[in-house]
Amino acid sequence: MPAFSTNSYTSKEAESADQFSGSLGHVLKTENGKTTVIGQAWMAQPGTLVTCGHVVEPFLKQASMLIVKFPASGNEYKIDSIKIHPSFVRQQDELINFDAAVLSLRLKEPELSAPPLPIKFDVSLRNQQTLLAVRYPAHLGSLSSSSDALSQTGHFLGHLRKHDNFHLLHDLALAPGDSGAPILNEGGVVAIHCGDTASLPGLNLPTTSIRLALWIDALRELGLSETAPVVTAQERRLSPLECGYIVLIAFLISFSVAMLDFVAWRNWRYTHTAQVNTSSQNR
Which of 104, 128, 162, 216 has the fewest other C-beta atoms within 10 Å? Predict the structure, then answer.
């Protein structure tokens, strides 16, 4: 995948959305002839998509009511199977723990050849670190007329609870219908957007701009593996600190080589001078 600056994704947003557009889908509910967007889904590996558990949990026994649509191609797929995270639970305060699920689909082209989004486990996030979300927008449950994927930036705000690395807070401006959207940093997908905190009175958060996410490492329990980042021809721009380290290392190497050459020359000169002196004495 393209490498993003940890400070700003502004110049990369359109490129990122375009690169992943073929791997992004909507989860749709069909009922009484009406289709409603209920969540986002993204390809983690061929034929396997990730979404939020709360998006599909009400339909575990009625999976035929759900379809996944890929806006880039317009293709629609029935869901073969749904697997909810084993620790998924709705709490009394309406908060959902481990809000993730995977969907199995039988894909055709072009989705069959679309690159999965890169997953990177064990990534530590810093407070106020810039994050990026990519998805196809929906409005009030209806598909958008836009044919382009949307990307936008926000920040990691910390963890929901102490000693809980899995449940995260962020301020990405995502709306109802965006649950399940992938959240990325420069190494790959690091979290799944789970919803707005405004509908969760038990949290008592001071602003509705704070939203919930689930750390990507939770997908290990759903049988998914870390994948290598997509490689592009574009090289990552080095930060000034990294450039300084490289210059320093290059200087130290050059200095060490010069010192070794000097020592070797001095030893040679000493030996040569001694040999000349010995030869002169013998004469």
Answer: 162
Domain ranges (residues) in the chain: 10-222, 240-283
Return the SS3 of 151: strand
Position with higher pLDDT, 142 vs 172: 172
DSSP 3-state of 194:
strand
**CATH for the stretch 10-222:** 2.40.10.120
Q: Please give the full DSSP string across 3-72, using - where no structure is assigned.
A: ---SS--GGGHHHHHHHHGGGEEEEEEEETTEEEEEEEEEEEETTEEEE-HHHHGGGTT-GGGEEEEETT
Q: pLDDT of 222-256, one tens digit each?
A: 999 988 554 443 444 555 666 666 777 877 787 77
Sign for the pseudo-dihedral over CA of 122, 124, 130, 131:
positive
pLDDT for 139 beyond 70? no
Q: Is the pLDDT of residue 126 over 60?
A: yes
Cα separation, 196 vs 175, in Å, equals: 7
Contacts for 153-161 with beta carbons within 8 Å, 24 or more apart?
153/8, 153/9, 153/10, 153/13, 154/130, 155/128, 155/129, 155/130, 155/131, 156/125, 156/126, 156/127, 156/128, 156/129, 156/131, 157/127, 157/128, 157/210, 158/127, 160/203, 160/212
Residue 21: which residues within 8 A CB-CB, separation 6 or more?
A: 71, 72, 136, 148, 149
CB atoms within 10 A of CB 143: 17
User: What is the rounded distance in angstroms from the CA atom of residue 280 to the CA atom of residue 177?
Assistant: 95
Each residue's pLDDT tens digit, 92-116: 777 899 999 999 999 999 999 999 9
